[in-house]
From TrEMBL:
The chain crosses the membrane at residues 121-143. Residues 338-530 form the FtsK domain. Keywords: ATP-binding, Membrane, Nucleotide-binding, Transmembrane, Transmembrane helix. ATP binds at G356, R357, P358, G359, Q360, G361, K362, S363. The lineage of its organism: Bacteria, Bacillati, Actinomycetota, Actinomycetes, Pseudonocardiales. This is FtsK domain-containing protein.
Length: 691
């Protein structure tokens, strides 16, 4: 090589480096402290500590004032005790009122109390003297013996006694030294506690400068607000130093704060609800943002307070606005609760009554429910609008029945639909009875079988007050609506009613009493409120009268929609206005979903199984139960039990007319109209022979 390297050959090179282990060092071990330091909990603790450090001078001065005031209160109490201040105040009141007897009793009590007090003091002094007279000589003798003799020269028992006394003395000195250190601290703490603010809910750990101070609600604020409502039992309770019991302390609940309070004796939740406007003012909230209601008991107050301005925001788009289909058995997205949670409103096994003043969102809410039902390919829609309103025109292609108008023909069509629903209930009941296991109600599995005709059937009537007040069809419509509401839920039949005139005359009381879901937008008075939400709701503090016209448009008070006693719901809004139509695209998507599942509107589940024709003669024979003579009133009762949908409204005239068509009628026996079994059997034989 001659000291020269060949071209292209690799040459060795020495690197300066540090020898390390083969196994890498875990980054987790190095960052545990850092992760803890940056954790949200640690950051919160640091923020609280920093805030308290900044406020330390103010807190120290406040505590010092509490200590001084506590000593002052102790001195005042001692002076009152020493001078019989409470009894003397009674005597002064009696003197001012001119009640000589009360004044005499108060003075006698002062003398008796003084005598008893000095008597107790004499007893204590006597016992101290007796104990000292016994213990002092014994102690002196033991001290002298211990000073003059060594323990070795004493009797063993005496030496042990002196050792025990010495040990006890050392323990006593140690305890006394500790008390000299702890005692002053305890004294100061007790004085600060005595001198604290005693007005309702007062505290000293406050943070008034936090960013969300306006929204902050705690037990202190609630107690103070309740203490200034002007309710006599509450005033007396706080005046005597009482402190409210919070069974549920203030906690975040959606877009607000929830507390549950056990009210003192003599106070009910209704009393607080009656002063809701004053309570809202005391809490620094709008009336709409403050909801006091009765809890599980009359003396338990459930209070939900919204964050400031939380209810002013919109709800955003309807969740199914642009995509998706729906199963009505799972409910329909209806709106946002006051807590900011999406409400999945029930349709199956539910009936709805929606109302409010014009322009507040009633029809839009009904439209949202129908849009949800339309997106279920198994659902059938019947829609009747008792007025000249195009609000539901886009549903025409999706609905099996759609009528709109103010003439008698629309009212007649609506009543006919209710009649058909009543007949449909009978048919569905028989179909359910033929299924394996005799299921008690329609399920999703049964609804998916087109041949059974147990699909969801949703019938909506807008401006239903026009129908119920119709001079010709109103009474019949009310009877049929109540029947469908009571019995249709387990057959997959849903009735949706909407009105802007919820009065005792326009809405049958049985409708309000039996609907599952009541929804009230802004209403004018208590009658309209309870007509939609149920009797007693206004008294219980559930009030749609507090919703402001126009300002709270789209916001409603709902009962039965969720498991809560009530909900304040901001309903989703699917626009259908001039130049803005978001309803039609959803309906078109619903039609596309319907086609994908091979279903048609014309026979969207109209079952091949038809209801058996009603045969009064056969039914009368069935309810005779083998008896020779049955009173007509018993026959009518048995017929109503046998087939309520057909015979529930029958009278003696109906029964007589039905029997007359077969050539006989009731006869009198023993002064009572009866139906004879031989007449029924003869009529059946004659008819069967003709057939």
């Amino acid at each position: 090589m001659n000291g020269n390297h060949e071209r292209g050959a690799l040459q060795p090179k020495v690197f300066e480096a540090e020898i390390v282990d083969d196994e890498p060092v875990s980054g987790d071990n190095r960052s545990v402290l850092g992760r803890w330091w940056n954790a949200p909990g640690a950051a919160h603790l640091r923020a609280v500590a920093a805030y308290r450090f900044r406020k330390l001078p103010r807190d120290f001065l406040r505590l010092a004032w509490f200590v001084l005031r506590g000593h002052g209160r102790w001195m005042a109490k001692a002076w009152t005790w020493a001078t019989y201040g409470d009894l003397r105040s009674d005597a002064r009141r009696a003197r001012v009122s001119g009640d000589a007897e009360a004044r005499r009793r108060a003075q006698e009590l002062i003398r008796a109390d003084a005598k008893a007090r000095w008597g107790r003091l004499a007893i204590v002094l006597h016992r101290v003297v007796v104990v000292a007279a016994v213990v002092a000589p014994v102690g002196l003798v033991l001290w002298c013996v211990d000073s003059w003799m060594t323990r070795a020269d004493m009797w063993p028992w005496l030496a042990q006694l002196l050792d025990l006394i010495g040990t006890a003395w050392e323990v006593l000195k140690t305890v006394a030294s500790a008390l000299l250190l702890i005692g002053p601290v305890g004294w100061v703490v007790a004085a600060a506690w005595e001198g604290r603010d005693k007005e309702p809910g007062a505290t000293w750990l406050t943070r008034p400068d936090r960013d969300d101070a306006d929204s902050w609600i705690d037990e202190r604020m609630v107690s103070k607000a309740l203490g200034h409502l002007g309710i006599a039992p509450l005033n007396a309770f706080f005046k005597n130093g009482g402190e409210l019991l919070y069974s549920v302390p203030a906690r975040r609940d959606g877009n607000g704060t929830f507390v549950q309070v056990r009210l003192p004796l003599g106070t009910t939740a209704d009393m607080v609800a009656d002063r809701r406007d004053k309570l809202a003012a005391n809490l620094g909230r709008a009336k709409l943002e403050t909801w006091p209601t009765e809890g599980d008991e009359a003396g338990v107050l459930d209070l939900w307070v919204a964050d400031k301005g939380a209810l002013a925001g919109g709800t955003g788009d309807w969740p199914l606005q642009y995509d998706g289909q729906l199963d009505v058995f799972d409910g329909v997205p209806f709106g946002l609760t006051q807590r900011g949670m999406v409400v999945n409103a029930p349709l199956i096994e539910a009936n709805w009554l929606i109302g409010g003043r014009p322009g507040q969102g009633k029809s839009a809410a009904l439209r949202t429910l129908l849009l949800g039902a339309a997106l279920d390919p198994t659902a059938e829609l019947w829609i009747f609008v008792m007025g000249e309103s195009p609000d539901f025109d886009p549903f025409g292609p999706r609905a099996s029945r759609y009528r709109m108008g103010m003439d008698d023909a629309v009212a007649e069509a609506a009543v006919s639909a209710l009649e058909d629903l009543s007949t449909e209930m009978e048919r569905r009941g028989k179909v359910l009875g033929e299924q394996p296991g005799r299921p008690p109600k329609v399920s999703r599995k049964l609804a998916d079988k087109p041949g059974l005709g147990l699909h969801p059937l949703v019938c909506a009537i807008d401006e239903c007050h026009e129908l119920f007040q119709h001079p010709k069809f109103g009474k019949r419509a009310a009877e049929l609506a109540v029947r469908v509401i009571k019995r249709g839920r387990k057959y997959g039949i849903v009735l949706l009613l909407a009105t802007q005139s919820p009065t005792k005359d326009s809405i049958p009381r049985e409708v309000t009493r039996n609907v599952s879901c009541g929804v009230a937008f802004s209403v004018a008075d208590q009658i309209a409120n309870d007509g939609l939400l149920g009797t007693g709701k206004y008294r219980a503090g559930i009030r749609a009268t507090d919703l402001r016209m126009k300002t709270d448009r789209g916001t409603c008070v709902a009962v039965g929609v969720t498991d809560a006693t009530f909900d304040l719901i901001r309903a989703f809004y699917v626009p259908f206005e001039d130049e803005v139509d978001m309803v039609t695209p959803v309906v078109e998507r619903a039609l596309a979903i319907l086609r994908e599942h091979g279903r048609e509107i014309e026979n969207s589940g109209r079952a091949a199984i038809q209801a058996t024709p009603v045969d009064p003669l056969t039914d009368v024979a069935a309810v005779m139960h083998g008896e020779r003579r049955v009173p007509t009133r018993v026959v009518l009762a048995r017929l109503a039990e046998h087939n309520p949908a057909e015979y529930e409204r029958w009278t003696f005239s109906d029964l007589k007319a039905a029997l007359a068509r077969h050539g006989f009628g009731p006869r009198k026996s023993g002064g009572v109209q009866v139906v004879r079994a031989e007449d029924v059997s003869a009529a059946l034989s004659l008819r069967d022979g003709r057939e």
